[in-house]
Design goal:
Blueprint: E1 3-7, E2 10-13, H1 15-20, E3 26-30, E4 33-41, E5 53-57, E6 63-69, H2 73-78, H3 90-118, H4 142-150, E7 165-166, E8 181-183, E9 188-193, E10 196-200, E11 204-208, H5 215-219, E12 224-229, H6 236-241, H7 257-260, E13 261-271, H8 275-288, E14 291-301, E15 320-328, E16 359-362, H9 375-378, E17 388-391, E18 400-404, E19 416-419
Parallel strand pairs: 2-16, 3-9, 7-8, 11-18, 12-13, 12-17, 14-16, 17-18
Antiparallel strand pairs: 1-2, 3-4, 4-19, 5-6, 8-11, 9-10, 13-15, 14-15
Amino acid sequence: MSVVVSDACGWLLDSHSFINEHYVCCLTKHGCSQQSAAYTFKREYFNIERPYIVSKPTENGETGQSMHDLKTPSAVQKGKGRKRKRSLNQGELDSEVYHDKIRLLVQEGTRSLVEMSQTLGYMIGVVASKATETMTPPDCHLADMCDMAKSLHLDDGGADDACPQSIWGDDDALDLFSRLTENPRDQSCEMTLMRGRYLIPPRCKFLLSDITCTQPLRNSGETFDLIVLDPPWENKSVKRSSRYSFLPSSQLKQLPVDVLSSPECLVVTWVTNRPRHLRFVKEELYPHWGVQVLAEWLWVKVTRAGEFVFPLDSPHKKPYELMVLGRKSYNSTSSNETVATSDGSELSECAVPLPDHRLVVSVPSALHSQKPSLSAVLKPYIRPNARCLELFARNLQSDWTSWGNEVLKFQHISYFTKDSTNTHQPNEEKAHITV
């Protein structure tokens, strides 16, 4: 289970163990022969042992706003002169106002969940990390491959293409860019795709494409009870680093969420801490899709010892990210129509009311943009055997359909370790209990 403990404030998750659950029995395809093996996601990607940035303690022992970066201490020593304090822009002022509203919840709620998990033997110490040479992630060039596929004049899809193609057919005949691909079996599979080795979890579907090719999802005729989006939001750090291509907010409206969502579909969107992105989702994007905003949750990132990865009051980076949750209008005839109330009175019996301001606490991955799975925490708020879709996905999940131009990114075998003993769980991962 990914949920270690839960209370009225939220949930504390073990993302590493959740990933490993899918690869205990993995079939390896080599021509006509098949072998079975167990794989684990490399532990060092979740060995966040200390905060990225820490605050210097004040005279009374409390954490102040002066910070230094543990990774680059020399950078702190360069500028000894006093810098002129600049005025905050409107976006920064809005961020401070929002932070003041949720600060106590984040501080006290995280403390409660961490302390509860420590009583179960979780987050009680630091383990030695492995050598850092294994930390360099592979460059799979998936987005570049999607761009190349656009010039191949792929079929737009017809009646035959509406049915997903199985990975258990001919590997060379698989069309990953314009057809849904699925693993219908109850076992995961290691296989060669685009000259790379990838692990495909059981009972999953995926489409490797960008926003210009969503037609295969439409053609499938399937609608979803849960849709999670992790858009590549535009911001200055992304432009500087070029780690991934960003998407202007206005283009998100092109996504066929209104077509792909079932009545009362739960829609969850990851949002950066920039107020304008939050306003866009709540005031433009969700109304455009006929989705009623119901709640805002926060993902709080902590170390293996339960400390915030950034100081809670850091003016630069916060130790949390936002999620906006809403539900599709049941009988929506207008993009501005609202149907659901905060107590769920206008929803059918299968739709459990969503609580507002809940925390999802976990040790983050060291890999950029790898989010924790929300399957376990959202399960009470969707119908049994719900059909789930992730847009802008960077990995696959069992019983989910995933779409994006990097949908196989974290499925590359170089992120995993082959476990011949099949006893991969360390001591702190043995007991996963929801309280």
